[in-house]
């Protein structure tokens, strides 16, 4: 998702492979993060800001079939992919727009809720977007925002090349948006005029244990979005051999009887 023409492009790209990855990613986070504690009721209208390939909208559509859904993204290829994906789920009624999230093409109070997933991290200036979202939500409606914390990826056993890779990933995300976006969610929502704002850390910790595949699934999920970015890390001056060794270590920890992976995510909510 791009916020404006003069800002860096969405760092993962818009290829069909990336669009499929986004759908798989949303399925992975469905019950872990996307769906818990949502205050949605049939007949309400929800806007997904930075909807990308429609992955999160697909999850919300399946869990809340009575919601009227809308989405916006600046990239036409993403919106077209979202149309195809949602139509394949039987939802060809979703109001999808190509446009700027800082100038939403809907009137005041058009929605009951807004949802943002892995969006704030990609936008250097989120403040005008949050104010615009508040304009488009009815009084008493909600905004829900999920953002990861890119300095909270901890592995065991520790490995210096994994730490090197994580530092490269953080620097790369920071160059494209806000790698510290999660820490700022609460104050940003308050500043945008939302009330009853909450922001909490949600921890995910996976460890090796017989008969459980969670650690392998999570490390491979993580590698799926880190590995394609390695050439960009190299362009920043990082050593490719060390980066590859760090990735290999990440993919090996599930086989270690003491292997573990920890990640923190911020989940914020406010009322218009």
Describe this structure in words.
The protein is an alpha/beta fold and 272 residues long. It has one domain (16-271): Vaccinia Virus protein VP39 (Rossmann fold, 3-Layer(aba) Sandwich). The chain has nine helices and eight strands. It has helices spanning 16-34, 55-63, 76-88, 127-136, 160-176, 181-191, 214-226, 230-235, 240-252; strands spanning 45-49, 68-73, 95-98, 111-117, 137-148, 154-156, 195-207, 260-271. Strands 1, 2, 3, 4, 5, 6, 7 and 8 form an eight-stranded mixed β-sheet that branches. Helix 1 packs across helix 2 (55-63), helix 5 packs across helix 9 (240-252) and helix 7 (214-226) packs antiparallel against helix 9 (240-252). The chain is globular and about 50 Å long. It starts with 15 loop residues before the first helix and ends with a strand.
């Amino acid at each position: 998702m791009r916020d404006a023409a003069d800002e860096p492009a969405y760092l993962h790209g818009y290829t069909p492979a990336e669009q499929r990855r986004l759908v798989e990613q949303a399925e992975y986070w469905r019950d872990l993060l996307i769906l818990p504690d949502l205050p949605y009721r049939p007949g309400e209208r929800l806007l997904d800001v930075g909807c990308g390939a429609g992955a999160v909208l697909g999850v919300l559509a399946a869990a809340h079939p009575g919601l009227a859904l809308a989405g916006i993204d600046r990239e036409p290829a993403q919106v077209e992919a979202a149309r195809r994906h949602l139509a394949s789920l039987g939802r060809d009624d979703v109001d999808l727009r190509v446009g700027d999230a800082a100038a939403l093409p809907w009137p005041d109070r058009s929605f009951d809720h807004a949802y943002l997933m892995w969006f704030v991290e990609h936008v250097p200036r989120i403040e005008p977007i949050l104010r615009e979202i508040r304009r488009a939500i009815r009084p008493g409606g909600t905004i829900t925002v999920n953002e990861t914390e890119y300095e909270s990826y901890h592995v065991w056993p520790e490995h210096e090349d994994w730490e090197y890779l994580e530092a490269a990933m953080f620097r790369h995300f920071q160059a494209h948006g806000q790698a510290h976006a999660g820490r700022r969610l609460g104050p940003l929502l308050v500043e945008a005029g939302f009330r009853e704002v909450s922001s909490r850390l949600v921890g995910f910790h996976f460890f090796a244990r017989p008969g459980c595949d969670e650690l392998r699934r999570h490390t491979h999920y993580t590698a799926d979005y880190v590995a394609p970015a390695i050439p960009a890390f190299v362009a920043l001056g990082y050593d490719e051999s060390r980066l590859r060794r760090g990735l290999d270590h990440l993919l090996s920890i599930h086989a270690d009887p003491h292997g573990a992976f920890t990640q923190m995510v911020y989940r914020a909510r406010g009322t218009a």
